[in-house]
Amino acid sequence: MADTRGFGLWMRRASYLALGLLILFFQLLPLDTGTPRWAPPDLLVALTFAWAVRRPDFVPALSVAAMMLLADLLLQRPPGLLAALVVLGAEWLKRRAPELRDDSFLTEWLSVASVIVVVSLGYRVVLNLLAVAQPPLGLHLMQLLMTMAVYPVVVGICYLFFGLQKPAASDLDTRGIGA
Amino acid sequence: MAREKGNGEDFANPLRRLLLGIILFSLLGIFLVWRIDSPRVERFRADVVDSVMPSFDWAMAPVTATVNLFRDFQSYQRIHSQNRELRRELQQMKAWKEAALQLEQENARLRDLNNVRIDPRLTHVTGVVLADSGSPFRQSVLLNVGARDGIMDGWATMDGLGLVGRVSGVGERTSRVILLTDSSSRIPAVIQPSGQRALVAGDNSAAPLLDFIENEAAVRPGDRIVSSGDADVFPPGLLIGQVAEDPQGRLRVRLAADYQRLEFLRVLRNHNARTISGTGALIVPEARPAPEPVAGAERPEARAADPAAEAGGDG
What we know:
The complex is a heterodimer of chains A (179) and B (315).
Chain A: H1 6-28, H2 43-54, H3 61-74, H4 81-100, H5 105-129, H6 137-162, H7 172-178
Helix pairs in contact in A: 1-2, 1-3, 2-4, 2-6, 3-4, 4-5, 5-6
Chain B: H1 7-36, H2 38-75, H3 79-114, E1 124-132, E2 140-143, E3 156-158, E4 163-170, E5 175-179, E6 186-192, E7 196-201, E8 209-211, E9 224-227, E10 239-245, E11 251-255, E12 264-268, H4 299-314
Antiparallel strand pairs in B: 1-2, 1-12, 2-5, 3-4, 3-12, 4-5, 6-7, 6-9, 7-8, 9-10, 10-11
C-alpha cells in the first residue's frame, strides 16, 4: 500500500525520527517531578527494535544512532553507550529480519526480547567495568520487563497508524533497491 | 546465509558495514571521552539541551497544563469531603495566622531595636520548570533561566518553602537542577535543635537518607533540618525538611518542598559558592585565594587550629 521507494521511503525514515522526538517530548514533560516507584518502559528502544524487525530500510543505522544519542543527552544518561548498544541490537535484528518475516509473531517477540535483555545487560556490565554510578538494579529490571511487555503494543500501534506490516513477498524486489 | 537478499544489498554491504563501524566507533568514542573528561562532555550536553529544549517549550507548556487540568478534574469527585476538610483546616490556620501576626510584629520590633539587616546577598532569580529528567533513574529538572540570567553552577534552588536542589549544568538559556532526591546529591545539613551535623544523601527515593550523624540518639523524628553552610556548598539556614524514621529504623528527611509539583523555583544568588576548578581540588582543598581584608585578621588562627582539631578527631 505504501510507496517504499524514493520520496515515500524518506517520508518513512522521517516519521521514525518524528515518532522518536514525540516520545522524548512526552517523557520530558514535567508532569510528575516526584520520585517514581516504578519505571516506565523505554518506548524509544521498543519502537526502534519494532521498526528494525519489520521494516529494516526505514531505520538506517545513522538515524537510530542520532535518535538514541539525542535521547542519551536529553535524559541524562552516559552519552553514547546505550546508543551504540541499541544500534548494534537493531543491526542484528535487521540481519535476522528476512528469517523472521515468515515466522509467527511470538518468535519475533522472543528475539526482540532477547536483544533487549542483551542490550540492558551489556549496558550495566560496561558501566560497572568503568565504575560509573548506576541506577538501582530493581528499577532497571522493572524497566527491562516493561519494555518487553510493551513491545506488542508498540507494534500494534505502528501497524494501525503507520501501516508497519512485514513486507509481503511482492515488496521484496523493490525494497532491495531502495535500501 | 543461504537466504537470498535483494541484489542491491550486495553492493551496499561493505559500504554499509563501514558506515556502521564509523557510527559505533564515534558513539563509543563519545562515551569514553565522557568517562575520561566528563566536564567537557557535560558542557556539550548542556549546550544540546539548551538548543533543543526551548524549541519544545511552546508545546510543552500547553500540553502540561492540559494534562494537569484533567488530573484536577478527576479530583472533583472527592470535592465534597475535601471541602469539609479544608474548612476545618482553615479554622486551625486562622488561629495560627493570629499567632504568626503577633510574632511578626514582635519580630519587627526586636529587629528594629537591634538594627538588623537581612543578608542582602541572598537575592534570587525565579525560573519556571521546563522539563524533568525524563528518566526514572535521575531526579532533576530543567529551568528556563540560564547563563544569560546570571545563573552559575552550584547555586541553591528553593520552592516557596524549602530547598529543592543544586544547579548543575548551565546553558545559555536553561539550567539543570539536581534535586535532593537524586542518588548523586549530597548536602551538608544541621539538625535543630540538637545541632548535630549530617549529610542529606539522595537515594532516588522520595525521602533522602540522613548520613554521617555523629550521635543518632540526639536526633528525633520531627526535628528540623536546615542547610549548614559547611564547605561553602549552600548558604546556611535554608530549610530542608524534617527528620523521619523509616521502617528499617534509618533516619530520613521528609522534604519541606513540594516535590510532586515543582513549577516555579527560586535560584538563590550566592557568589561565595565554592567552585571546583580542577580534579585535585575536590580532595585537597586549595589555598583560599586571598582572604577578604576584613576577615583577614582573625583567619590565620582559625585555620591553624583546624588541622589540630581534625587530627585529634581521627585518633
